[in-house]
Amino acid sequence: MTEKGLREVVAADTTVSDIDGDAGRLWYAGYEIADLARNATFEEVVYLLHNARLPNQDELDELDGFLIENRELSPFLTQLMSTLAQQTSPMSMLRTSISAASAYDPDGWDESPEAQYRKAMRLIAKTPALIANYERMRTGQQIVPPNPKLPHAANFLYMLSGEEPQHEDADALDTTFILYADHTMNASTFAARIIASTLSDMFSAITGAVGALKGPLHGGANEEAMKMAEEIGRAPDAEAYVRDLLQRHEKVMGFGHAVYRTMDPRATVLRELAREVGARHGDERWADIFEALQETVYEQKQLWPNVDLYAAGVYRSLGIPTDLMTPIFALARMAGWTAHVREQYADNKVIRPGSAYVGPRDQVWVPIEERS
């Protein structure tokens, strides 16, 4: 008997992250996610996921310096973006751009562990510029070059808006990056590890991961949750909206999870963050709607919210367009994807699961003129 969706099938040993779905707990390299969300920076989490330990100050300074030095896009990618910004959706842009980035990577086709590490860090460094430049170009605005004095999250908001963000907003975005940075063997990470297991290159593996994340049953859920909130409009209308969806046997986006049997620990952090950011910007409407949704969906279906529900509220309060929410998920998950790809390379065996054949057997060839 097969287990659909490979539930409970162990595909790899990993030091990157771990989940206890029954207890609603998530760890990165042994550190509880709430502890990291309260105390760490995204850059520290990048180092943690790739090295299974937190950096000392010198190591963090070195990483920060490398990320800052590699933020800008090549002229080739900038020229390509002018076409992508007018012709493609944000996630399609990101998928194509990640693939194209291989053309001018300084390490070329060097597949040594040291080169793979540098490629991983460059992808992490450049993804914010890909998204920000795309948004600026498609809205007819001048590209804003990266600010070397700003950390990763703050610099992204700066490139996106053209204004240096408030410290509290940058911290809020940084927290979402930490919460999205990794989540064990999800669909996009598994896709990346499968590709890496063939000893294909880093860019191919990450391109595959972006393609998997694009789907509404994975990364696209935060966009769908925000669209749902926009349709609802105000918290008192949430209950009727949910009841109508359920009567039509449709999915309520941002709820339920393949692993967690209780509240997603990331959603717990984000619920508070959505309320805090909304209050600071004078608009708690989205927090109100999402909390009303949580109450109604649990009452009707006993489902808890996942990371995507409240993340959408945080992003909207920060002024981020709805269709950029999944690319920002990818921006953060780039840390985990690249860590998993490097881990796969380090102890590799090609991933080749079996299958259960359920089609007809013992059929006999019939010439075409005799087929009905």
Question: How would you portray this structure in words?
Answer:
The chain is mainly alpha-helical. It has 2 domains: 17-218 and 321-346, Citrate Synthase, domain 1, CATH 1.10.580; 221-317, Cytochrome P450-Terp, domain 2 (Cytochrome p450-Terp, domain 2). It has helices at 33-39, 42-51, 57-69, 75-87, 90-100, 113-138, 152-161, 167-180, 187-197, 202-213, 221-232, 238-247, 265-280, 285-301, 307-317, 325-346; strands spanning 17-20, 25-28, 31-32. A 3-stranded antiparallel sheet has the order 1-2-3. A hairpin with a 4-residue loop joins strand 1 and strand 2 (25-28). Helix 5 runs antiparallel to helix 6, helix 5 (90-100) packs antiparallel against helix 10 and helix 6 packs antiparallel against helix 16 (325-346). The longest helix has 26 residues, at 113-138. The radius of gyration is 22 Å and the shape is globular.
Element-level helix/strand string: EEEHHHHHHHHHHHHHHHH
- Write down the overall mean pLDDT: 94
Number of DSSP E strands: 3
Low-confidence stretches: none
Give the class-level CATH name of the largest domain. Answer: Mainly Alpha
**Mass-distribution shape:** globular
Query: In this structure, how is the largest beta sheet organized?
Result: 3 strands, antiparallel
Structural class: mainly alpha
CATH superfamily of the largest domain: Citrate Synthase, domain 1
End-to-end Cα distance: 35 Å
Number of domains: 2
* Named CATH topology of the largest domain: Citrate Synthase, domain 1
Q: Please give the count of helices.
A: 16
